[in-house]
Design a protein that fits this description.
- It is a single chain.
- The protein is mainly alpha-helical and 179 residues long.
- The chain has a single domain, classed as NusB-like (N-utilizing Substance Protein B Homolog, Chain A), CATH 1.10.940.10.
- The protein is 60% helix and 0% strand.
- It is built from 7 helices and no strands.
- Helix 4 crosses helix 5 and helix 6 packs antiparallel against helix 7.
- The protein starts with 10 loop residues before the first helix and ends in a 33-residue tail after the last helix.
């Protein structure tokens, strides 16, 4: 019996996988330093991961590492009562990834950036991380919109349309993300 040919993942799924890969690379770079990035990239390419996935993952990861001071400043301003060093390693890198995508990937709607970050936080961190990431990224988004650095996303990012990575309806942002 002949099996059906393998279908390639959808572009949305590839982007989700790239974000996951970027988070793993950022986690390593946060702990070991940026020198680990080139060998990790080579290994992922040698292991046969799709080029588009690896390309997008490392575009994000290198963008974060290149702009980490600005990204951390935006994160600190939005995460009241939380310093970057007090945040869990996964949470701060999910936030960095989301902020990088908000700043430098205008082709990705802010609601998708936030929803994907929420899903990464839920999957790789604690049960409270999704709400924390949602609150901080939504505040960063609003600050960037107010400063004219990104286009307005509408009144309720992450809630107005079903799509990639939408969180359950009961997952509201915390009133104070850092409390």
């Amino acid at each position: 019996m002949k099996s059906a040919p393998a279908r390639s993942p959808s572009p949305r799924r590839e982007r989700s996988r790239a974000r996951e890969m970027a988070l793993q690379v950022l986690y390593q770079a946060d702990l070991l330093g940026d020198d680990c990035m080139d060998p990790v990239e080579a290994t992922l390419r040698d292991d046969g991961h799709p080029a588009e996935v690896v390309d997008y993952a490392f575009d994000l990861a290198r963008g974060v590492r290149r702009g980490v001071q600005e990204i951390d400043a935006l994160m600190t301003a939005a995460a009241q009562h939380w310093s970057v060093s007090r945040m869990a390693v996964v949470d701060r890198n999910v936030l960095r990834l989301g902020i990088e995508e908000l700043l430098h990937h205008p082709d990705v709607p802010p609601r998708v950036v936030i929803n994907e970050a929420i899903e990464l936080a839920k999957r790789f961190s604690t049960s409270a991380s999704g709400a924390f990431v949602n609150g901080v990224l939504d505040r960063v988004r609003k600050d960037l919109e107010a400063a004219g650095r990104i286009a307005p996303a509408g009144p309720h990012p992450g809630r107005e349309a079903a799509g990639e990575g939408d969180p359950p309806a009961g997952d509201a942002p915390p009133a104070d993300a850092g409390a």
